[in-house]
Amino acid sequence: MLNRILFYSLAAIALAAVTFFVTCNMVIQKAPEKVMSTIEARIAAGVGSWNACFHNQVYGPRTNAARRANPDSIISSMAYDLSDGPVRVAGETWPRYWSLSFYQQNSDNFFVVNDLELESSSFDFVLALEGQDTDALGGTTVVSPTAKGIMLVRRFAADASDMPGIIANQDAMTCGPID
């Protein structure tokens, strides 16, 4: 009788432990994807579609808005979806500081470059999935591990007087599907 109680108790503990570890693993793996899906949807809704740039054009802290980690970093973002083919991101860097980052669906950063790493002040990246033909497209191919993700371009604004130049820089940027 005691052996049977001990056996069932150990079996219940083992089942609870397995359930706990499986659930934790699923939450740890799925939570970043859920967060990224929410952010992607918000960016796409803000600009009206996937594969199009959304530009912050406000300098400094904003009243009644989410706090930005760095209010002097002016950000352009794009929620990308490579299901229908590659996407081009091209333009000119910003002289004070400029960087471009791509994040895959689980929020991992898989590519980053800044203005000091480029050979010139212009950039032309073709974001594609493995196996998508980019040979005739020109630019520098960047392979995304997932079909969906986010692009961020950061520009440093020393003060509000930089904003007209940054806005012109943003407006000259290309973000979109390749026709």
Question: How would you characterize the overall build of this protein?
Answer:
With 179 residues, this protein is an alpha+beta fold. The protein has a single domain, classed as Immunoglobulin-like, CATH 2.60.40.1610. Helices cover 31% and strands 32% of the residues. It contains 2 helices and 9 strands. The strands form 2 sheets. The chain has a 5-stranded antiparallel sheet with strand order 1-2-8-4-5, with helices on both faces. A 4-stranded mixed sheet has the order 7-6-3-9.
Write a brief structural summary.
By secondary structure, this protein is α+β, with helices and mostly antiparallel strands. It has 2 helices and 9 strands; from the N terminus they run αββββββββαβ.
